[in-house]
Design a protein that fits this description.
The protein has 222 residues and is mostly helical. It has 11 helices and 2 strands; from the N terminus they run H-E-H-H-H-E-H-H-H-H-H-H-H. The protein has a two-stranded antiparallel ribbon. The longest helix has 27 residues. This is TMEM175 family protein. It is a multi-pass membrane protein. Keywords: Ion channel, Ion transport, Membrane, Potassium, Potassium channel, Potassium transport, Transmembrane, Transmembrane helix, Transport.
């Protein structure tokens, strides 16, 4: 065994995923907090405050949308690490790529808030949010390929989860060509995320859980 092989075996994989999970949680928390920090209180006379707040509605809308989507990605990330039995260096690098994009959520929110009527504003927002989901999905797929999940996690449950996590990035990325023709239509297309996820919930509630693991809690895959 070479020194490089010995190094990789000793340091690039192992059962401890807590530090990676804690660090990731911190990045998600900071990114979600900065979404609100970017919304400034209007510095206007009192008789103009109401109008100024109303004019900030695009900023509040971008904040709400971005917070909800980021929270959904965090929940998916949390579920992934809750099911892992260990890590590899590739999984950690994928996780860092995910956090690289998560840190740009504030920039994406500002783009859609101030340039949501422009093609580039919508494309940048959809691309960043979509790429976060692509990397998140890649982490799920890689973990399954490398057998990093705990032994008691049924393959059918993993297949269901992997399908669910791919919905949001698929909708965002598919909205990019729509934005090239009509930015407003692209933003409306994002409601498909809610519709498709509701459909999955309905179908999932009717499908029996694998007998080996029993029925999952109601919120286990929301």
């Amino acid at each position: 065994m070479s020194m490089n092989q010995a190094f990789a075996r000793r340091f690039n994989s192992g059962p401890d995923v807590e530090r990676t999970a804690f660090f990731s949680d911190a990045v998600f928390a900071i990114a979600m907090t900065l979404l609100a920090v970017d919304i400034k209180v209007p510095q206007v006379p009192g008789d103009e405050l109401g109008r100024a707040v109303v004019e900030q509605s695009p900023e509040f809308g971008a904040y709400l949308l971005s917070f909800v989507v980021t929270a959904a990605y965090w929940l998916s990330h949390h579920r992934l690490f809750r099911l892992l039995s260990g890590f590899t260096v590739v999984l950690q690098r994928l996780n860092l790529a995910l956090l690289l994009l998560v840190a740009l959520i504030g920039y994406a929110a500002d783009m859609i808030a101030f340039h949501g009527d422009q093609v580039l504003g919508v494309v940048v927002y959809a691309a960043i949010l979509g790429l976060i989901g692509v990397v998140n999905t890649a982490m799920w797929l890689y973990a399954g390929h490398r057998g990093l999940f705990q032994d008691d996690v049924h393959p059918r449950l993993l297949a269901y989860a992997r399908t669910r996590v791919a919905v949001t990035p698929a909708v965002f990325l598919l909205s990019i060509p729509i934005a090239l023709l009509n930015p407003a239509a692209a933003t409306y297309s994002w409601t498909a995320i809610v519709v498709v996820n509701l459909l999955f919930r309905v179908l999932g509630s009717r499908a029996p859980a694998p007998a080996e693991i029993g029925a999952p809690p109601d919120d286990s895959l929301d």
